[in-house]
Specification:
mainly alpha, two-stranded antiparallel sheet
Amino acid sequence: MQVKIHVKKIAVDVDNFPNYSEKRYQMICQIQGFLKEGCSYREIVRRMGVGRNTIAKYRNGNPMELSMYGVRQSKLDPYYDFIVQCLKSGWSKSKTVKAVYEKGYTGSLSNAFDYLVKIEEKINEQFAPQPYVRTMTEALKYRTGSCGKDKDYITREGIFRYMWMNKELTEEHKCHILNQYPHIYELHSCIKEFRRIFEERKVPLLYLFIEKYSKSEIKALQSFASGLSRDIDAVENAVAYDYSNGFVEGTNSRLKMIKRTMYGRCDKRLLEAKLRYPKATAYG
């Protein structure tokens, strides 16, 4: 008695792909065919009923490989040969990623570095280590600035100390800064005039300040002046009186901090003990 065994025939060109999907293969070929004809994403969606993300996923690449289960195309696949060439040339990862971005890569930075790690594992070679580049700030002897024979410089911290803390600069530095950055003069004047308002306790100076800097070319100063005009009552009281709500704001901040630290940890009695002031004793 002969037993007939029915064997399902598999296409010859996909015989070496056990996870091959015929349905997906036909869909990918159809998508790439429509794209070659010049059809838009909207037209392909209307004809095939697939999503835009699916079209973008399968628009490039070998349909045979893309139709396999577990195979996912990466944005860096078109740059694989270039990355391997950079690896063989002794480039670092940072230099390679920068070159890939210049060639048109639009993905995230973390995915690019992860892709380079996978190439290292596949080829069993390592990219060159990133050389340490000493920054200009680290090379400075003085943090605020200096006038020396080798280098003459002024740092951002030095400019900040000059504008906000009234630290002195050399005349050469002042002339250079004001010539290169004219807005610094206006910023410095704004700081001094605002301090003068509170030192002399004069409300008319406040209105002159708001009127002057509401027309400034610096948007940050315009925003600051408009904010003062919106809260003019509170600002007037701050200028005219010595009273401050700092104690109240500090107490509120303290209560909120205690409340946040108590979430889900202790009961009501401990919360009350934290918030209440201790009773005065005979010794204190």
